[in-house]
Amino acid sequence: MPLPTNFLKALWRRSPMESEASVPLLSVAGLVKEFPAQGRHGSVVRAVNDVSFTVGAGECLAIVGESGSGKSTLARTVLRLIEPDSGSIRYRGEELLALNRREMRAARRNMQMVFQDPHSSLHPRQSVGQLISAPWKVHKDVVPRSDRKDRISDLLDQVGLPGAFAEVSPSRLSGGQRQRVAIARALALQPEILVLDEPVSSLDVSIQAQVISLLMTLQEKFGLAYVFISHDLSLVRLVADRVAVMYGGSFVEQGPTESLYRDPQHSYTQALLAASPSLGDPLHLQPGGSTA
Amino acid sequence: MSNTERIVREEDGFLTRHPKLRMLSNSPLAMASVVWLVLLVLTGLIAPPFIGDEANRQVLSLRFVPPFTLDHGFEYVLGADSLGRPMLLQIIMGARTSMTVAFFAVAISALTGFAIGVVSGYFGGWLDQALMRIADILHTIPSLLLALAVLYVLEPSIVNLIGVLAVTRIPLYLRTSRAQTLELRERVFVESSRAMGAPAWRIMLRDIAPMSLPTIRTLAMLEVGTVILAAASLSFLGIGLQRPDVDWGMLVADGRAYLSSAWWVTVFPGVVIVITALAANIISNWLRAIEDPVQSVLFIRKRPRESEVTA
Amino acid sequence: MSSLLSVTDLEVDFHTVQGRVEAVRGVSFDLAAGESMAIVGESGSGKSVTSLALLGLVGEVGEVRGRIVFQGRDLVGVPEAELRDVRGAGVSLVFQDSLDALNPVYTVGAQISEILRVRLGWSRQRAREEALHLMQQVGIPDAHKRIGNYPHQFSGGMRQRICIAMAIALKPKLLVADEPTTALDVTVQAEILRLLRALQRESGMSLIFVTHDLAVARLIATRIIVMHGGRVVERGLIDDIFDRPRHPYTKALLAAHPGRVASWKDLRPIPENLTDEAPVDAPADQLPKGPVEEIAHGI
Question: What is the pTM of this model?
């Protein structure tokens, strides 16, 4: 029997519910990551060039850009999968870059990632059940061993997959199904923020619809915050509250979704919008999302 | 029909439910090799306690009995050597020795090399450099020469033989698993484990090692043939094993002086060496081929039966 | 007017350990010279297998039945040596993964030249000049310098242009492009599509463009066939399909596209059982009767 949404939200949060306005959930300031440039000795390339943004609880921030813009590097740097060269990353006010390895491991509970390619992000030799429960073996205090089987079924149910899939190997699943497994795994630790790196780009357009619906439903249900990375502008318009446009390692424009799409300021944003194939005439939207 | 249900299942049967066995039954060479090796292992395990004394008993009246006659009993069907010992029984005794040496030498070197390679590849840095230099040194010295030197200093025995063969073959597995680890550690599922905070040992054990294992397994099977040959060579040169331990190489060496008069003393053990090494190679080749999606088709396609031709 | 390509009742099976997979069933279509057609379908619909079958690349691991009549000649069951003559000069293919399609240890100039030298017997000098010309034709800047570069030194979009250059080197009558822009950025994709259209106009080459994205199909093709479950479920002119889709699957495909809806709640994921419906063909009077005028879509 489905539980009321507020109850679920309360279960989800481990700390008492704070007023959303006080401290942003995630606050990134002046983030920089450099890589040595190919060929030329001594010179560097700034994949992430002084990037700053915030994400509030329950909010969806989209970061759009093309290949080479640095958006994937940014995603990984925020999670410290790549160590930044300078800057600050604060989660609920706490500076993540000051944490040692053990503390960082504990902090990872709150921020999880869904990767782009469901074919390579799931270990080919493990079953779905093993994949979903892997985070609990690292963070042993989240789900006691006796409850794990039930929690796996529960998570599969949340992402719309039958419970029998727990025994199945991901190689037998389609791309869309695998991505759902990846989402279930990301939710296993009950994080507050999900970083989604092009979560539907490897999927067929029609399957994208399924996975996007799922992601948005889960966001509403659990009050998750999303950092949604994509190159697909028509998709981003449907899911994001705010959009940041990235080019050459920097944010060239940031703002609420609708105003960015209706009235782009930066020339790069305008070029991006002009190049997207769309299926029909641009739709005129009412606030709240539905057409007149 | 949806996109995933267009597979026409063939009738259910034992072979359908065990695809690997089915592919084996379609490859006569691999089948024969498996049968040979299984036979060897079984006789090597079961027979020796019963025939051990028989095999080593010198019956001078039966010196150089020619093969292919049953006049003197079943055990002399492959002839006798210079001291009247039955060849068939000696070969069986040799089977146990060779299998033991091959199994332990390969197992020790594979597991050790594999483990070191994964650790070295995963961490990189100075540890990796140091380990690779040691492997280089080991690799540069011809293994047989090294074995010769070591066994000359220590006394030849099964344990020493296994030890020296194991150590000299480690670099092969080490390099292979290290190379694979270097590639695997960049894969997204490893990154995903790091994203959930998994420690290094866990990633190596659960994510990387299982992916590298099949190649190591294939290598090990190929190595079985090589190790048997290497052990035989060392015994042939006289520094491998000594009587009463019997080894195929030793048998070949014993009969060398009598090649023109009593060829069976050398030839039969020699043939057994060749067939066994060949069988190990064929099986490892077959194992690799069935895991390759394109080649594996060759093992399962059959001629369509009458009933499958529908309107 | 006889068609350049006429496919009739194409069927492709694969044998796997689980059993026989029916990848393509009963696919038929015609293509005239100079026409561009899109094959649209999801993964597993059989669209890629169909395009590979057109070049006879399925025979080794699968069984092909039916008729593929290209320039009056049936290619099914033709021996490999004759098929090789058709490939490249008659029908050419561009793959999705341009990095995989190119040999990493040879320069791009060498790879393009190789085609000309092996197939046409040209000298090294002459082949190199033509390779340079082809690179310029597909829009690679500084072709003089870049002809000596290796594939990994190019960006994804540039590499795909190289693959296109190789595909048109022998001036084929038909170019089959299997999801060539799926892995590319949106702006690069727009350029590649523009390039393909320009090449078609210049040479009168026909184009079959395989994709899973209806929006992209609309930008490149005038006719479309929609595949699902190995079958063609709908066919017709692009604009007709968009304005008046008839098969439930086509309608579902349109309704699931993010560019078509205002909110994610309006996205309609495709239900599973749609191909049980019979395929829908466009009525005869709507099929094009001659070379089709390209409709500009503003890219």
Answer: 0.79
